[in-house]
Amino acid sequence: MFDVKSLKTLEYDKILEELASHAQSQGGKVKARNLTPFEDYEGAVHALDETDEADRTLFDFSVNPSFSVDDIDEALHRAAKGAVLSITDILKVGRTLRVSRRLKKSIYTVNGVPILTSMVQCLYDNIDLENRIFDSFISETEVSDNASAELRSIRIRIRKLNDNVKTKLQSYITSSTYQKYLQDNIITVRGDRYVIPLKSECKGTIQGLIHDQSASGSTLFVEPMAIVELNNDLRTAKVEEQVEIERILRNFSMSIQGCEDRLRIAYETITDMDVIFAKALLGREWKASRPNVNTKGVVRINAGRHPLIDGKKVVPVSLSMNSEDKMILITGPNTGGKTVTLKLVGLFVLLAMTGMYVPAKSADLAIFDGVYCDIGDEQSIEQSLSTFSGHIKTIIEILDKITDKSLVLFDELGAGTDPGEGAALAVSISERIISVGAKALVTSHFNDLKEFALVTKGVVCASMEFNVETLSPTYKLVMGAIGCSNALDIAKKLGLDDEIINRAKNKVSPEKRRFDEVLNAAEETRRKAQQLVTDASLDRAKAREALIDAEKEKAVIAQKREKLDETIRKGTKNLIENSMEEANDIIASLKEILAKPEEEIAPADLFEAHKLKKKLETMSAEYDKESVVEDQEIPGEIKIGDNVWVKSLGKKGKLVKANNREGEVSFGKISVKVKKNDYYKVK
């Protein structure tokens, strides 16, 4: 059973309200607002599988089913007792049948959704009853003539009687004899009987029954004797119409009564699926990912974003709590994001256990039997409790409930009282949580708690990053770091008088100053180490690129070797083969460097990798001083030192010797004798 107060604190209700806004049916909205997390692994996994199938249905198969049904619970309840349902109730049932049938059909078109396919098998498909309902009722107040043959016959008779009555009355209105007695030349109705308006002073001029009088008394509404019988017949026909409508409604009610159980199951299934698809829609809106759930107490979040904070302003949070970890102590400056981080972790766990995706790149979230938190101001005016007392009352309740499968979130544990006693209390409470075996995330400024974290097995340190240059928080969580409050520095930045700042610094205990100095030094060492790791990672990536480039250079050398003329291969065989062997040795060395674990790669190794790559590039260049084909001949006499194109080799070189029969052309370190007609002058 999850703690209601903690759920409220973590704003779980706001998430459910947002989920409800994505549901289509009123029943789905109600169910969304009343969701609770699963307390077992199987339940959470099943719920996540449901959401996954809904997501694929919507976005992979582009199937967007309708869940727009009315609440039929009350109607079914009355039908089960034999009551006659209203037209409105019957139409609600008809719409449920229509949605049920169409939903089943749409899900059957999707492959690989076994859970949803199983669910739609519970839907009730009664096309005969569905068609009869929509054929019989035009609106929630009007029954169609098609509802029954008897109703159609009665209404034909009513229409004929209406016409006869109006025809008779029209004869009075158009008669020159009676027009002068009438107040208006109109036909009206009084008490479901057709009448004409007669002037009061002309009473008795038209024989008939007086049904009403105007408020002023100047007009009498008279039913002429000539149409009394027609009006009686019309009234009788309308009574017959109502009797027939009642019979039709009773028959539909009995039909609904006969399938009440199946209709109820269908309605529940539709609204359940409505919630599932709402989860998928909300997950897409959040750009969320499916969390991996576990029973080992592992909580890992990669770039998590609180769903209730503007995505443009939120700073992603990453943290890790392994199975052997018992507690994460989060330190750092005020307003640095510690509380938001606590709420994010708690909320993410609840979302995963509810079968919802979480707004993060990835997440591994443990299943807990409860999430308990003490976050924010617990001051109670009604109970005359101070802030500290309110916190202690909440903590007592939490400690009574937690097990080794619980998650506890404490914000500023021990705050609100004497710092020395508060710190001691915070350490003792932390020890109790660890002894129970529960997982905990705690935020604090207390040095005692920081020392406790440093020396206690299973306690992991983390800190909200603080920019010492700008004296402002970055809202980034750094695992493995212990932060300082930086209160004095922040106060100075905000403009507090230097004299006050200096006096405050002098009042800080030497032990506190030494501790902060150690922490600052440790943090600086951590940052430098992190930078080295980052640089090493970058250099490792560069070395990996060097290996790829080396492989390419080796291939280029091989291609160039193949293109060389037989004469050149004879003269330079040893040089080329040695180059290929050296290239192979270089690549082997690069591979050996990259095979080492990242932490074992020394700067010297990385330097050697870059040097080897450069050497290989230089070797390749020796064979490709001129890689662009330049075959445009320049007219004129060829002289020693001119650039020439050797046609048989397809390469450009420099003429170093020449006679009437042949010339000697240099290609870098290689010189080749070629026939005089095999080369010509180029740029």
Defining traits:
5 domains, MutS, DNA mismatch repair protein, Chain A, domain 3, alpha/beta, six-stranded mixed sheet, single chain, extended, Rossmann fold, 683 residues, five-stranded antiparallel sheet
What does this protein look like?
Strand 11, helix 14 and strand 12 (439-443) form a beta-alpha-beta unit. The strands form 4 sheets. The chain has a 6-stranded mixed sheet, sandwiched between helices. A 5-stranded antiparallel sheet has the order 18-17-16-15-19. It folds into 5 domains: 13-126 and 259-286, MutS, DNA mismatch repair protein, Chain A, domain 3, CATH 1.10.1420.10; 147-248, MutS, DNA mismatch repair protein, Chain A, domain 3 (Orthogonal Bundle), CATH 1.10.1420; 292-508, Rossmann fold; 533-622; 626-683, SH3 type barrels. The model is unreliable at 378-384, 565-575 and 623-630 (pLDDT under 50). The chain has 683 residues and is α/β, with parallel strands linked by helices. It is extended and about 145 Å long. The two termini are 88 Å apart. The chain is 51% helix and 15% strand.
